[in-house]
Known about the structure:
Rossmann fold; 9 strands; about 45% helix
Amino acid sequence: MSKLSLKSSRWKDMTDSLMESRIRGDVYVRFGGEYTKTYHRNMTRRWVLSLHTEEKPISFNPFYTDDYVFDVEKKDSIKTLLLTLWKSEDDKVTKTESGELGSAVNAYIKRIRADRSIVPSFNTFYEYMRDDYRRELAEREIKVEKSDFNIDNMLTTMRQYYRGGRYDFLLNSTENIDLLGKRFIVFEIDSIKENRELFPVVTIIIMEAFINKMRRLKGVRKQLIVEEAWKALSSANMAEYLRYMYKTVRKYYGEAIVVTQEVDDIISSPVVKESIINNSDCKILLDQRKYMNKFDAIQSLLGLTEKEKSQILSINMANNPSRLYKEVWIGLGGTQSAVYATEVSAEEYLAYTTEETEKVEVYRLAEQLGGDIEAAIRQLAERRRNKE
């Protein structure tokens, strides 16, 4: 199943509640959002959080697997990553360049399998290319011209990701976390979305992480949630990946969900028009009143009937003032639709709230309680109930 969601501020409460209820059996990969500041008890138990700060820069190791299994798609993703490190988006990749890098990846994998003393990382791959593959290339009977594959240019360009370079942290993680075995992974990359060098590399790693889960984990529900979809769609690689994902994910017992607050994301993107909407059986919309002037375009794009339009525009128009809930419209394949109320407990609301004043209140009390977030949430929730 695939979903397209237009959200409001209450989307986070609803989707986090849904994920929390299903986390025991599912796998999630998500980037965007504010998980650094909410419900971090689960970060050590259930997911890996990837951030980028000056103190702790984002770091991966695309060459690491705990079982040394590198299937065809894993090898292809490494090759695509290397080409992204080397070439700009405007540079054309020749068949020779793609073929030589693919051969180099295969040869390096054979080497680390045969010699487990070699630490799989970009550093050791770079050294293999510099010291061994370049020599082997020069010794071939059939010479490879530099105009066809300029290995010196490649090594020079990639030098910044090697030991001592300015981005040497990115592909040489020493934690060696096997993402395949993690139930819930959050990629939070807001801080690098404008970085033209880091952002394309990180999105490729995210793609590979989910594809690896999708194909290798049999009988387990997999779910990819792309929060703030415009960030993903701004990357050509990620846009093509989402196109591919929406067409194939259901075959592997998986779901793909794209979430956006901006109507222009779905109106202007050809990827959304051609792939995401056509392959989304479930559409979820929250309060759309602020887009009244644009709703005809949304209705046309989503293929909504007049009845469905009326349902959506009735959201939150007659809520019970004594209850803390928000309404949501859910449409299933054009055959069934309705408006539902979503309400969470006070504890769950406080765990996931993105309101700054409420978060500060939770953290201040937690600090008084020795850092116990759960105890702080329970106490604050009880206070709210007593006030009622």
